[in-house]
């Protein structure tokens, strides 16, 4: 059981909740803060103190006063009008993460919602009721308004949810549980949708997948090194200590550990003095990607515990401040940075694939790893496919955060586009995983020519595991199926050990 208190959520705790299915409970002290902030909102309503989003309109309508009798209807209209999400829905894992993050933010006690609402969000997480949320439509400032409105729709019995793996109307879900939809009261609609939880939720899933991918990229690269009789001297600790980057040193150490008992690697001068950069510079390039992962983790874990709605209520209602914590620029930058880091893991992987299939570079391997070069093409077009994915990643890696389009009659005149950045990062990760699957297929074929019995203990275990999914290339076949199967296995396969 993981306790949410608004202040101590971590990436690992999110993983345990959304991927491992751990239940959550709400810290009592945090619930007390929620109650106090709700009392402050009710006091504002009763005294008709003009406060943004409670008794005023939204955005450019912030100067329009709302009559006391209409403050509840204001919130309902807000959710319905802002639920303009379009496109395919986010993966269910992302939807669940959005609920967890929104709940955690509300538990900080600055948002003014009722305990009933936070308890219902807790129920949705624990009972696996997840809103269907379209991916497109957020500008990433003023909060992820459109996506979070679809989350809020589920609470009020509108829209759709996933329940027990089925996509059903939200109202049917509540009825099946013997519950009634939430009727939003003052401030609650705004508190639900003013925030960065769409981009941050997808950012969390991206990071968790990118971490796993980065570890797997080292395991796959190690097998390629064996297939190409790579020179181990490039991983000597003295080289990496001389430069001083901890992540670079860590990658070099892991490569040494993976390959420590291999009979297929070589030493400087045995077959060649030094390898090409895609082998020799694995610690430097992969290490730089790990630096980005560390940066992104830091920003995400701040945002996991951030109050990002507007206005925020302090001093038990004595101080209510309109600000801009909903602006997604920090996460927008982080996602754009993550895109580049993962794209580079795929880029250097594709170069290693080229060395495995190119007879002028592969140190005696059959051309394109073909069982009958000329009659059969072997892995020739797998390299084409990898190159295509890498090229697509270059387009997706263009920073979303450098763009901004004004909205709400120029009241909201600068936005982050952070959700677009997160979505593109997700696509880059999928592409990179397929590139790495292609490298693994080619590396397995290469080590078969070199002698599987000479592999290191660690790479041999991977070889045997992956060979159960992708058989040896003894004749040309449709390799599309193999790539997808191994890519899916890499996605589902739990990383052997998190190093964070």
TrEMBL record:
HAMAP family: His_ammonia_lyase (MF_00229). This is Histidine ammonia-lyase. The gene is hutH. CDD domains: PAL-HAL (cd00332). InterPro entries: Aromatic_Lyase, Fumarase/histidase_N, HutH, L-Aspartase-like, Phe/His_NH3-lyase_AS. Its EC number is 4.3.1.3. It is found in: Cytoplasm. It comes from Jeotgalibacillus campisalis. One of its GO terms (cellular component) is cytoplasm. The modification 2,3-didehydroalanine (Ser) is found at residue 142.
């Amino acid at each position: 059981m993981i306790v949410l208190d608004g202040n101590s959520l971590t990436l690992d705790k999110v993983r345990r909740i959304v991927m491992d299915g751990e239940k959550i409970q709400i810290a009592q002290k945090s619930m007390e803060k929620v109650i106090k902030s709700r009392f402050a909102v009710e006091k504002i309503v009763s005294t008709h103190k003009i406060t943004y989003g409670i008794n005023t309109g939204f955005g450019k309508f912030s100067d329009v006063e709302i009559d006391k009798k209409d403050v509840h209807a204001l919130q309902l209209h807000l959710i319905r009008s802002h639920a303009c999400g379009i496109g395919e829905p986010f993966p269910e894992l992302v939807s669940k993460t959005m609920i967890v993050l929104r709940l955690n933010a509300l538990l900080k006690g600055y948002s003014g919602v009722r305990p009933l609402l936070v308890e219902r969000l807790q129920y949705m997480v624990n009972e696996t009721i997840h809103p269907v949320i379209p991916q497109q439509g957020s500008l990433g400032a003023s909060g992820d308004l459109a996506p979070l409105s679809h989350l809020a729709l589920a609470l009020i019995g509108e829209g759709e949810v996933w329940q027990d793996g089925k996509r059903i109307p939200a109202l049917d879900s509540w009825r099946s549980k013997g519950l009634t939809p939430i009727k939003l009261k003052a401030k609650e609609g705004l508190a639900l949708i003013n925030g960065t939880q769409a981009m941050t939720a997808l950012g969390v899933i991206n990071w968790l997948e990118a971490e796993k991918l980065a570890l797997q990229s080292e395991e796959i690269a190690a097998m390629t090194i064996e297939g190409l009789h790579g020179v181990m001297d490039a991983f000597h600790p003295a080289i990496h200590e001389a430069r001083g980057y901890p992540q670079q040193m860590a990658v070099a150490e892991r490569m040494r550990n993976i390959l420590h008992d291999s009979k297929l690697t070589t030493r400087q001068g045995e077959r060649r003095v030094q390898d090409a950069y895609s082998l020799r510079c694995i610690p430097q390039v992969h290490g730089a990607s790990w630096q980005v992962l560390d940066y992104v983790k830091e920003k995400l874990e701040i945002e996991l515990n951030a109050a990002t709605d507007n206005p925020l209520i302090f001093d038990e209602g004595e101080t209510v401040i309109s600000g801009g914590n909903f602006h997604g620029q920090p996460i927008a930058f982080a996602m754009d940075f993550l895109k580049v880091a993962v794209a580079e893991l795929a880029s250097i992987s594709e170069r290693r694939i080229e060395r495995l299939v190119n007879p002028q570079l592969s140190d005696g391997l059959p051309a394109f790893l073909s069982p009958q070069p000329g009659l059969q093409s072997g892995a020739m077009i797998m390299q084409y496919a990898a190159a295509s994915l890498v090229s697509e990643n270059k387009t997706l890696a263009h920073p979303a955060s450098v763009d901004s389009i004004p909205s709400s009659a120029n009241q909201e005149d600068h936005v982050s586009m952070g959700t677009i950045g997160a979505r593109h990062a997700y696509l880059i990760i999928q592409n990179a995983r397929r590139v790495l699957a292609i490298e693994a297929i080619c590396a397995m074929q290469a080590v078969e020519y070199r002698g599987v019995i000479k592999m290191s203990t660690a790479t041999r275990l991977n070889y045997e595991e992956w060979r159960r999914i992708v058989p040896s290339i003894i004749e040309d076949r449709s390799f599309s199926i193999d790539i997808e199967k191994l890519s899916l296995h890499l996605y589902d396969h739990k990383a052997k050990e998190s190093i964070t």
